[in-house]
Write a structure and sequence with these properties.
The chain is built from 17 helices and 5 strands. With about 375 residues, the chain is mainly alpha-helical. It is globular, with a radius of gyration of 20 Å.
Amino acid sequence: MAPKLKHRWSVGHNYLTGITFGAWCKLLAQNRFRISPAYFHRAAFITVASVMNSVFAGIETMRFGKAITQSQITRPPLFVLGHWRSGTTFLHELLAQDTAQFQFPNTYQVVNPYTFLTTEAVSTRAFKWMLPQTRPMDNMALKFTSPQEDEFAPLLMTLKSVYLGVSFPEATAHYDRYMTFRDVDRVEVETWKAAFLRFCKKLSLHDKRALLIKSPPHTARIRTILEMFPDARFVHIHRDPYAVFQSQRHFFDTAGWYTYLQKPDLAAVEEGMINRHETMYDAFYEDLPLIPKGRIHEVRYDDLKADPAGEIAKIYDQLSLDGYAQFAPVLEGYVDSLRGYQVNRFSTLDDPTKAMVAARWARSFEKGGYRK
């Protein structure tokens, strides 16, 4: 019996609506134009949006192209690292309250990297209906102005991202390479780096605060990040691997359905989750010694949840970030506003799945000090 295609008719909450027409044609050709008939309407919607994006991208290049090229990133960025569903968004949101020190890419900007300087003010009002009030996989508020992971921006600019394997599950193996860039031609790596830097320069064109960047795939790209930002700082958050597994499985059963352009092989989803975790942390621990002393700090999700202000204070101290005394009242006010927030709750893992996670992610249990 074929699986039910959840949210089949939805065209919202899909990052590909920010792609340009040329890039969209290239992406389709890359996947041999294999769109499942159930998702033809999504492809049609993306096509229409891509034409408009191309028009505004041309206008934006004429208006700002030279200025973007000359834009300077003058302060060391702070990168939030961690596996999907390990608390990276919570940590990102907490740090983003320090508006005196940090700027960050928001939801609109990361899915409209070609055009946001030109279109953001108008489009965030006109297309507010496309955005759910909360994220599909949890109860966190979602707005166009919310801090968002930057992965979508270079994805749309280069078509090089592990996330494209969700949209095109038949090509998962091809796109998974872009999580670490380990087995990718150097020309492709440089193309991605150039796009990422250009996006950061656009963000910094009118705002010279330090960039606060969060994207789980960056956990596997420390060496690539240091090539671009040798003075970057990092904070890595980790969580009980069982909870990570359950939460990511929930993600694919909720948010994932808004993105598919090919019918997913549901039987392959969990194995893909397990493999990507292993690949991510192989790269992370290989690259960790490249980070200079005093430039990375580790946070446990449970500790952050129990004492957000205390854990953020430790981050500022360990990474030698200024301004915590001024930031503290703002942070405490934000933490107070979160009281009553309900996190997802999941049933206990069955014994075979629990044993599999314990065996395959043994290093994460050991490194994080979690009980199997």
